[in-house]
Amino acid sequence: MNRLVKGDKAPQFTLDDDNGNSVSLADLAGKKVLVYFYPKAMTPGCVTQACGLRDINAQLADLNTIVLGVSPDPVKKLENFVTKKELNFPLLSDTDHAVADQFGVWGEKKFMGKIYDGIHRISFLIDEQGIVEKVFDKFKTKDHHQVVLDYLQSGE
Question: Taking the CB of residue 114, how many other CB atoms lie within 10 A of it?
Fold first, then answer.
């Protein structure tokens, strides 16, 4: 796993969203984009993280920031997640984890004594020019939205 760091150029990608529409990072130039990777739709930690971002999405928009959630879930599962939790930002389907690989967030994980490959819960703030401005990798799911908002509001 060779994760992107601050200053790296973000890989250009296009993925289908929860409605089956293509979303391209290139189409979002001129805005900050929070690309947050999460392991699996509708699991407790992922619900907590997504709902936190949902609740501050208007504040993020005021800070010229768009949220994109990325997981290996299929479009139909993402559609259900968005509907059930009333999410107000797109979730993107990376079923072959190609984008996760490009960002360096797909790799070995350990849970309850089992070792497997999966997405690591890491977020990248990409600036208006497509450069990684900040990597968020140390947070609790319940605090993720506040950590991001605090960073954006501080301008650091």
Answer: 7
For this structure, is 51 an active site residue?
no
Look-up of token digits 């960002």: 103
- Please tell me the distance from the alpha carbon of residue 131 to that of residue 6, in angstroms, as a whole number: 8
- Identify the residue with better confidence: 58 or 110: 58
| The pLDDT of residue 156 is above 70 | no
Could you tell me if residue 8 is inside a domain?
no
Residue 4 is assigned to a structural domain of this protein: no
pLDDT in tens, 112-127: 889 989 999 999 999 9
Q: 3 in a domain, yes or no?
A: no
Length of the chain equals 156
Q: What is the pTM of this model?
A: 0.95
**Tens of pLDDT along 63-89?**
999 999 999 999 999 999 999 999 999
Q: Give how many domains the chain has, as a whole number.
A: 1
Decide if 2 is inside a domain.
Answer: no
Residue of 15, 23, 35, 46 marked active site: 46
Q: Report yes or no: 80 and 40 within 8 Å, Cβ to Cβ.
A: no
- Residues paired with 8 in a beta bridge: none
What residues contact residue 48 under an 8 Å CB cut-off, 6+ apart?
Answer: 141, 142
